[in-house]
Recover the amino acids of this structure.
């Protein structure tokens, strides 16, 4: 019984730096990453050049205006002195003024040329980083899917589809957004900041020193808010998962919801879920409400301070207007990235929370996997032996199977009999290694199932599970599920053996009929027969049937039973038996009670020796 | 199988759509918070005002303080006060004057000393700083209020989607993937979530800022403003074009995302089958294909969204060049610009404006990807909400009065696809308390009959009445509350066992739940679980055997205590030992209720008041078991082929038991 309590579902490793792991996925695309980085550098360099160009043009205007003023307003004799005071060459005043329009034009053209370069490279940088983010999301989703596909049954017992879904979709998307936008912005900001600082230092050391304290201040804010918001975002994702689980259940169980007219109840439940999600989002936004304006404020106050000190220096004649303009133009490039800090923090905290959730799955220990050096299982004869097998489900102390031993010879039919929950299904689950034994060994042809590869093992075991799950796709696809390369003849033969051929061909599209999700377009009996055909197509040496003929009408069941009887010939078959006829014909009957074999033998032997068997048997009589 | 899935999803064609329609739909949600939005608008206006006024004041720092001082050095020799005065008086007309008339805040006194100038400067900058603080406070408020509105809208959207899921009825979900619907509720709402708080405020404020800057530019100088905004039409056209392309691409991308989700959903849910058949590698490969299609669709969309911001930025540099170039040229040549005198201060101010202008444009462009994606997401959500439920309560539908249990089918016809009747000419009458057994081969229409009775589908001809009331005239909820159904597949929620049983009647006490469990013979296995009734079931009741799940389903119905009971092959998959007990429980449950049983058990059929034999959508024989058997028709044949084996089995058992006893 794979029961779980809610609080043990996910262990949360206090893993910082999971975001770094996600970023390292960039290494899968070194060329793309390199190009993006180069484009980023060039684009940022171009951005840094623009203020210089603007300053040039202003300087050109100012100096020439001043020249003009000197020439027109200053008395002839004082012109030279005035020009010298302003650092202009008194002899070329008129000449420079004549050339001014040309100089302006050139400066303008240069700006436009730079604008084009900047535009081009910043496009390349954005496009490539978006591409990278898509590629990484693609990788992560593939990795998640592959991992989820391979994680053992016990993991899936503990985790719900809706929760896993959120991680593969929403969490990946958040991470992608960060890599595509946040990371880019952060890098851009860093490059811009460093570049600007260098320029500012060279321009005016004193003014730069006034700006500097703002940087560690911003860093502190960055770290603090990052640390505060990340757990908040983690909680958002958890609540989102809950909403999704409710949704998922309502989609899967819509008929039950409707049958009990529980729409209002479900709406309430869902309503609580989305309300609590909204609450958490608002909690996040309350934090952000401080963060965003604060960051902007720091940037702006910094600018105002510089304006003041710069102004004072100008008044005191220690700074020219042009120099000051240049300095304050570059100042924007210090404060622009700082202003984006809030946005970056928000994206980063979300991404870090999501990265942790993603890597939780990718790092999940698979309880059932190939041993190092596992060998492929050769074609088997079908001898199955359980040696003192004890099994308990993850995290539960009580054993579901206790000290079970038996041997099935090739070709034998073993009937498993017992009350609901006595451990029949568990025995069956251990053979294809859906779970691993806790103690003892399961041997097939003398080989421990844990020593061979899962694939080679499972391909030789045909299973009809308790529940029939079909996949969307055609009936043909579904029958060929275990052997996609099977020919049409083989598929039809399997369908015929499972008494499915007739109803399949009665559909207008025959084997190409599309099966809705979970086989919603087929009746229970039809689904089951397809599931049987699916197992038979494998032509397995070992056949496992759990409740295989439960929801088929009796006529069909009879046909299937006959087909199965034929098919069990020569294969080792394990049947969880509901029908007394199956039991009577079995080579061995194992009677289970509370995880132990309480009786074994043939029908006649058991009837004689086992009171419990007799009881089960007699209960049929009183009908 | 995923490619097939895409085909399946292909039903949803890409519709070219007007963005305004989608935006209008969003507005329907936002409009509910008009007062709050008004408040936000006030903050936005105030914040924007601060953002506009600040560069103006910054310009004044240059124009009214620094420039006069600089010029002062020239004209006055030492302090230059006289000279400045002289030029100031003629500043309106003289093109050579560097001061302009926009010193509305304060100018240094003409005879101010250096300290006084610095003091004035400090005052001005203090004002600027104060405005920054005010702007920060405003933007904090507006951010929070907007997030509140946004999250509330998102919540309402989610609630509406959820409600719609229940309204849609079963037929929708037989043709649409649950994963795709999931995707709309998760991914598509998430794209909206990405934009709705920070994004929306930025965009609204950005747009307002742009408008305001443009307006202020015009008030300063119409002519110079026109020059500065020469690139604006280009910006509009570019944005328009890129967004149209991006939205188209995103529509495709979101669809691909839907099929990725459907693939995920299906394969996660069915992971046990996959492993049982060693299909992992194939599935991973198939998923990779659809995942790659999704990636490529997104990459294509990124071309357009990535190009937008750089294009706009480049255009803004061009206007910077134009502002500086043209302005400088005019100053130097001393020309007027259509009557406007260009001062150095004006140029500096306009350069500041152009850069101010660039900031919201960049911000919006940065968010543009998300916005386009959100609009595409919104379209898909509204598309889903627009799907007409094929079955809904009539306007003015009454509440079904307490049911006595008199059920009539009058010439009922049903078809899932037009022209392909699954049932036709069905007439029957069940008196209160009667048990009706429905038998027939697979596909005869048995399940359809009970689906019609519970109104999961509507009849396409004839009518079904309960106590003389047409089931279509009453509300679905009031009808189904009085009908108990044990379905073929038992669905359990991942919740405690107690709550799963309680699903039958939410207000039931724990004692009543346990009572029902006892009636259904579920109590014994539940009590054996370590946590008993508080055991939390895994997804879909994993952890329990099918038999146990069925017991819980029966307990659930027993708790509901309905007047009409529908059983669909409920007893088939419980082991023989338990089955007998269930049979007894069901007999008890059936007693005194009108019951419809899709019967596979001979005993049920024998005890039924009426046996209906269905074949190819028609009732071909009816009567009691022995009557039908005696008539020697279809039922007789069915009986001989189906139940003979059961009888034989029973006889075998009898023989064996006799053998044991005789021993």
């Amino acid at each position: 019984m794979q029961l779980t309590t809610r609080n043990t579902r996910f262990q949360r490793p206090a893993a910082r730096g999971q975001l770094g792991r996600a970023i390292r996925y960039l290494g899968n695309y070194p060329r793309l990453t390199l190009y993006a980085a180069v484009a980023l550098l060039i684009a940022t360099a171009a951005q840094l050049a623009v203020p210089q160009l603007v300053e040039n043009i202003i300087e050109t205007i100012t100096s020439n205006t001043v020249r003009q003023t000197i020439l027109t307003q200053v008395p002839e004799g004082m012109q030279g002195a005035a020009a010298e005071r302003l650092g202009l060459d008194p002899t070329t005043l008129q000449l420079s003024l004549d050339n001014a329009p040309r100089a302006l034009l050139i400066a303008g053209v240069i700006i436009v040329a730079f604008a084009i370069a900047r535009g081009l490279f910043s496009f390349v940088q954005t496009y490539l980083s978006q591409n990278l983010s898509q590629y990484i999301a693609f990788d992560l989703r593939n990795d998640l899917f592959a991992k989820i596909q391979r994680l053992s049954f016990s993991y899936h017992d503990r985790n719900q589809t809706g929760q896993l879904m959120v991680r593969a979709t929403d969490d990946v998307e958040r991470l992608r957004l960060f890599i595509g936008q946040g990371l880019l912005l952060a890098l851009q900001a860093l490059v811009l900041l460093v570049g600007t600082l260098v320029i500012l230092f060279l321009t005016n050391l004193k003014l730069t020193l006034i700006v500097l304290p703002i940087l560690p201040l911003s860093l502190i804010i960055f770290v603090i808010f990052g640390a505060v918001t990340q757990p908040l975002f983690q909680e958002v994702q958890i609540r989102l998962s809950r909403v999704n689980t409710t949704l998922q259940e309502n989609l899967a169980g819509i008929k039950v919801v409707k049958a009990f007219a529980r729409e209002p109840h479900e709406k309430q439940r869902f309503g609580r879920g989305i309300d609590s999600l909204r609450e958490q989002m608002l909690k996040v936004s309350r934090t952000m409400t401080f963060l965003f304006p604060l960051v902007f404020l720091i940037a702006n106050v910094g600018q105002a301070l510089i304006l003041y000190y710069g102004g004072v220096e100008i008044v005191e004649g220690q700074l020219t207007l042009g120099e000051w303009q240049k300095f304050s133009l570059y100042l924007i490039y210090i404060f622009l990235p700082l202003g984006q800090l809030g946005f970056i923090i928000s994206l980063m905290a979300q991404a870090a929370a999501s990265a942790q959730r993603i890597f939780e799955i990718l790092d999940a220990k698979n309880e059932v996997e190939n041993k190092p050096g596992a060998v492929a299982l050769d074609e088997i004869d079908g001898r199955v032996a359980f040696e003192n097998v004890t099994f308990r489900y993850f995290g539960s102390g009580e054993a579901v199977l206790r000290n079970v031993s038996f041997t099935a010879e090739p070709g034998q039919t073993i009937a498993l009999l017992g009350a609901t929950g006595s451990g029949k299904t568990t025995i069956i689950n251990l053979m294809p290694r859906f779970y691993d034994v806790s103690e003892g060994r399961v041997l097939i042809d003398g080989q421990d199932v844990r020593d061979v590869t899962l694939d080679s093992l499972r391909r030789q075991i045909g299973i009809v599970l308790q529940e029939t799950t079909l996949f969307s796709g055609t009936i043909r696809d579904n029958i060929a599920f275990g052997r996609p390369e099977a020919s049409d003849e083989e598929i039809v033969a399997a369908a015929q053996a499972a008494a499915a051929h007739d109803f399949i061909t009665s559909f207008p599209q025959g084997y190409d009929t599309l099966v809705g999700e979970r086989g919603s377009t087929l009746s229970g009996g039809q689904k089951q027969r397809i599931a049987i055909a699916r197992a038979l197509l494998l032509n397995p040496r070992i056949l496992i049937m759990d409740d295989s003929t439960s929801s088929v009408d009796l006529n069909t069941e009879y046909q299937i039973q006959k087909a199965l009887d034929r098919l069990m010939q020569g294969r080792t078959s394990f049947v969880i038996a509901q029908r007394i006829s199956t039991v009577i014909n079995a080579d061995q009957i194992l009677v289970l009670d509370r995880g132990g074999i309480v009786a074994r033998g043939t029908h006649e032997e058991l009837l004689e020796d086992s009171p419990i068997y007799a009881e089960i048997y007699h209960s049929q009589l009183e009908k | 199988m995923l490619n097939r899935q895409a085909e399946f999803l292909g039903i949803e064609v890409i519709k070219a759509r007007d963005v305004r329609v989608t935006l209008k739909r969003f507005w329907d949600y936002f409009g509910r918070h008009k007062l709050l939005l008004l408040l936000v608008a006030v903050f936005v206006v105030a914040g924007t005002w601060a953002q506009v006024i600040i560069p103006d004041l910054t310009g004044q720092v240059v124009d009214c303080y620094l420039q006069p001082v600089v010029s002062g050095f020239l004209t006055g020799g030492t302090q230059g006060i006289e000279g400045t005065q002289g030029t100031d008086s003629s500043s309106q007309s003289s093109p050579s004057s560097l001061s302009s008339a926009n010193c509305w805040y304060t100018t240094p006194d003409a005879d101010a000393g250096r300290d006084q100038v610095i003091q004035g400067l400090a005052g001005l900058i203090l004002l600027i700083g104060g405005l920054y603080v005010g702007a920060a406070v405003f933007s904090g408020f507006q951010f929070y209020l907007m997030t509140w509105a946004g999250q509330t809208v998102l919540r309402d959207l989610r609630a509406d989607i959820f409600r719609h899921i229940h309204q849609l009825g079963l037929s929708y979900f037989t043709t649409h993937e649950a994963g795709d619907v999931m995707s709309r509720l998760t991914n598509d709402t998430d794209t909206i979530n990405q934009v709705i708080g920070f994004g929306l405020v930025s965009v609204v404020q950005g747009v307002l800022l742009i408008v305001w800057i443009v307006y202020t530019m015009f008030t300063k100088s119409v002519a110079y403003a026109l020059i500065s905004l020469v690139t604006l039409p280009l910006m509009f056209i570019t944005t328009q074009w890129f967004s149209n392309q991006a939205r188209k691409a995103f529509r495709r991308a979101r669809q691909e995302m839907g099929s990725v989700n459907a693939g995920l959903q299906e394969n996660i849910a069915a992971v046990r089958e996959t492993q049982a058949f060693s299909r992992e590698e194939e599935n991973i490969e198939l998923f990779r294909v659809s995942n790659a299609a999704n990636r490529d669709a997104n990459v294509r969309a990124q071309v357009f969204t990535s190009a937008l911001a750089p294009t706009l930025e480049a255009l803004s540099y061009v206007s910077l060049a134009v502002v500086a170039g043209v302005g400088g040229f005019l100053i130097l040549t001393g020309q007027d610009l259509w009557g406007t005198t260009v001062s150095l201060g004006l140029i500096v101010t306009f350069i500041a404006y152009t850069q101010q202008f660039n900031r919201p444009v960049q911000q919006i462009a940065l968010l543009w990807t998300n916005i386009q994606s959100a609009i595409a997401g919104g379209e898909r959500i509204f598309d889903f909400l627009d799907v007409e439920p094929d079955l809904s309560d009539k306007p003015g539908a009454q509440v079904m009065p307490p049911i006595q249990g008199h059920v009539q089918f009058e010439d009922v016809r049903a078809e899932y696809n037009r022209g392909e009747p699954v049932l036709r000419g069905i007439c029957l009458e069940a008196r209160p308390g009667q048990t009706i057994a429905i038998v027939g081969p697979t596909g005869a229409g048995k399940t359809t009959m009970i689906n019609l009775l519970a109104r999961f589908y509507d009849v396409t001809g004839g009518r079904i009445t309960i106590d003389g009331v047409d089931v279509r005239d009453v509300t679905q909820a009031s009808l189904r509350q009085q009908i108990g159904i044990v379905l073929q597949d038992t669905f359990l929620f991942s919740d405690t066992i107690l709550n799963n049983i309680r699903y039958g009647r939410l207000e039931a006490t724990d004692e009543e739940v346990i009572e029902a469990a006892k009636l259904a013979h579920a109590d014994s296995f539940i009590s054996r679980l370590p946590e008993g009734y508080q055991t939390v079931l895994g997804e879909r009741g994993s952890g329990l055997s099918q038999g146990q799940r069925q017991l819980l389903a029966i307990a659930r119905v027993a708790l509901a205590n309905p007047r009409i009971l529908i059983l669909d092959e409920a007893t088939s998959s419980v082991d023989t030992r338990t089955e007998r007990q269930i049979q007894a429980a069901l007999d008890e449950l059936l007693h005194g209720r009108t019951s419809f049983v899709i019967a596979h058990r001979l005993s049920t059929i024998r005890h039924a008041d009426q046996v209906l034999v269905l074949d190819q959508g028609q009732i071909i024989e009816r009567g009691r078991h022995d009557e039908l058997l005696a008539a020697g028709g279809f039922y007789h044949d069915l009986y001989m082929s189906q139940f003979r084996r059961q009888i034989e089995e029973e006889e075998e058992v009898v023989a064996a038991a006799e053998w044991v006893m005789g021993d």
Summary: The first strand of chain B starts at residue 407 and ends at 417.
